[in-house]
Design goal:
Layout: E1 5-7, E2 13-16, E3 27-32, E4 39-43, E5 47-51, E6 58-63, E7 68-74, E8 77-82, E9 85-90
Antiparallel strand pairs: 1-2, 3-4, 4-5, 5-6, 7-8, 8-9
Length: 94
Amino acid sequence: MAGLRRRGRHGADLGPGHLLTGLTGWVVALAVAPDGRWLASAGGDGTVRIWDPATGEAIASIRVAYALRQVLAIPTGIVAAGERGPYFLTLCRA
């Protein structure tokens, strides 16, 4: 998206940002990987998506049966929580 700029603390310009596209519902939580190499979003539609922060593209997704409310990035993967409790997701490289 042209003209989209990220702003840091006190309004400092952080350069061009990326719009996360391809979502089908509300994002209710967002987490950053401990090493900063990916983002995880949790949706009210029960979808966890993994994003490449350098490009803004979704690189993986999984849908669970119930709405999600929280997401947490941990060194081995993701913990997402929702109406039916926590889901522990391990990330693997293809």
